[in-house]
Amino acid sequence: MNQSSDPRSIQSLIKPKSIRPTVFWRLAEDIPRPLNTTLMVSSIAVPLLLWWLVTTFGTIDPKFLPSPAQVMEAFGRLWSTRELLKDTVASLWRVGVGFLLAATFSIPIGVLMGSFPSIRALLEPVFGLMRYMPAPAFIPLLILYLGIGEAPKITLIFIGVFFFNSLMVMDTVKFVPKDLIEATYMLGGNRWEALTQVIVPHVLPGILDACRINLAAAWQLVIVSELIAATEGLGRRISVAGRFLKTDEIFVGLIVIGIIGLSFDLLFQYLLRVSCKWASQKR
Amino acid sequence: MFLQIKQLNKHFATQTGTLVVLKDIDMTIAQGEFICAVGASGSGKSTLLRQIAGLDSPTTGEVRIDGKRVTGPGPDRGMVFQHYTLFPWMTVQANTEFGLKLQGVPKRQRREQASYYLNVVGLSQFAQALPKELSGGMKQRVAIARALASEPKVLLMDEPFGALDIHTKESMHEFMIDLWQRTGITVFMITHDVEEAVFLANRIYALGARPGTVRKEIEVKLPDRSHTIKRHAIFHDYRDELMDLLRRHGQEAALAVA
Ligand SMILES: Nc1ncnc2c1ncn2[C@@H]1O[C@H](COP(=O)(O)OP(=O)(O)OP(=O)(O)O)[C@@H](O)[C@H]1O
Ligand SMILES: [Mg+2]
């Protein structure tokens, strides 16, 4: 109490502070384009370079860590026999079907859960529980129920994506301002119109983002599913290569998986940008 | 009478018991009037407007428009909200057309109607802009155009200019007066800004707080409605009377709490 009555005493306690100008440490601000590009390129180039240096000048057994050149060679080999293409197509097909099925059901269900407290109360507890059961833990059951063909693999992806995606879509719906829905009613809209013409367009960016994140999960699960029982697929390729100590082929598999995953991610980001210009952060 | 509020009470159940927000509100509004309800923050202004809009239903009492009891929201009441409520993915034009679209008006007619009201609010050249490209005042003008496009019986406004700076506010006031005189629409506007109320309204309801009650009804008779009127003694008299009313009741409320 006494301190605040003497303004000078508090002044003496305040440490002088100022924000110095910076380029690299800008917080939530854009950095110059050239710097941005340089940093992004080095993000890939530096690890590549390190890899090359270590394998060229170090004395590491190529069975342990093959050089970039050896991996490229393995890539050429697998490509020329068309095995790699077959594997990639098989994995892509499983992810495509499993993910599309999961998205087809989870998006409307998530929107309904977010919009109607009644439907949320009905489904949220069981979905919340299912979400914490890791999808790979279902593999024994799926093999028991569905055998070892494509069905259990696709179902695995479905389980892994469906519950997460429903709950994430539900969350985006909760952020629709109530005012917008009330404005719709005042303009003569009914509940159905508020749902389809206001809630749905408002959550579209959120849905695309949820799908983008869960597609990454689907991509992981397809690899897991192929480690169990498959005749082709990128996951299968890796496990076979591991059995025969073909480390270079493991690397090929990993890199192809990474690049395809990243391409999907970029595709979704692009979709988000073109379809929802209104939602972009920048004014 | 055109818009009638009869013995309206609104209670909310809260953790600490029942909160009486509106108590025995009676209002009678004729067609073509410009009404302002003035009250301090928390006096239940938004709550009152929501009962008229039909977004909420009174605990007891009723609201009637054209003799018909209000039971839910509908496009016969145009609403301008306290916060910006434009649909961010729609252009200004699409926002303005949206109510007509919901009511099944064919494309060509609703385009014409929306363009007409965008012209009324002076935003024709922004028809293809997105809401995020507009300033606050422009957003509220689009919201007004959107509400007017359905040709409602009454325009309900909840502190529509509360977030605007004084100059933008002034031009919005002149715009409202002009709009009201040209279209003859009935306006029920809520505000905590005493000068705004005196300048715009032909009748003012001064609301007391906790619980919200009608403390006084003041007929405003100004010789004209240009912004120079704000310098006249008659304007000051109205303003001071209202200020005293709100201040006195504010103190009473504070004492009641203590
Ligand atoms: N849904 C609700 N549940 C409980 N209390 C509520 C609810 N809505 C409003 N209230 C209470 O009613 C009182 C009046 O709220 P209201 O929003 O109508 O005030 P206001 O006059 O519009 O204030 P402001 O000028 O700040 O917008 C407040 O004390 C608020 O806490
Ligand atoms: Mg309010």
Structural features, described:
The complex is a heterodimer of chains A (about 280) and B (about 260). With about 280 residues, chain A is mostly helical. Helix content of chain A is about 75%, strand content about 0%. In chain A, helix 6 (about 115-130) crosses helix 8, helix 7 (about 140-145) crosses helix 8 and helix 10 (about 190-230) packs antiparallel against helix 12 (about 245-275). The longest helix of chain A has about 40 residues, at about 190-230. Chain A is flat. The model of chain A has no long low-confidence stretch (mean pLDDT about 90). Chain B is globular and about 50 Å long. Chain B contains seven helices and ten strands. Chain B folds into two domains: about 1-75 and about 155-245, P-loop containing nucleotide triphosphate hydrolases (Rossmann fold, 3-Layer(aba) Sandwich); about 90-150, no CATH class. With about 260 residues, chain B is α/β, with parallel strands linked by helices. The longest helix of chain B has 25 residues, at about 235-255. In chain B, the strands form two sheets. A six-stranded mixed sheet of chain B has the order 6-7-8-3-9-10, with helices on both faces. Chain B has a four-stranded antiparallel sheet with strand order 2-1-4-5, with helices on one face. The chains are: A mainly alpha (about 280), B alpha/beta (about 260). The interface of A and B includes residues 183, 193, 197, 204 and 276 of A. Bound molecules: adenosine-5'-triphosphate and magnesium ion (MG). Adenosine-5'-triphosphate binds near residues 12, 19, 42, 43 and 47 of chain B.
Q: Give the structural class of chain B.
A: alpha/beta
Question: Would you state the CATH class of the domain at 86-279 in chain A?
Answer: Mainly Alpha
The end-to-end distance of chain B, rounded to whole angstroms, is 41 Å
Approximate helicity band of chain B: 25-40%
Number of strands of chain A: 0
Main β sheet profile of chain B: 6 strands, mixed
Radius of gyration of chain B: 19 Å
Put simply, the count of helices of chain B is 7
Bound molecules: adenosine-5'-triphosphate, magnesium ion
Query: Total strand count of chain B, please?
Result: 10
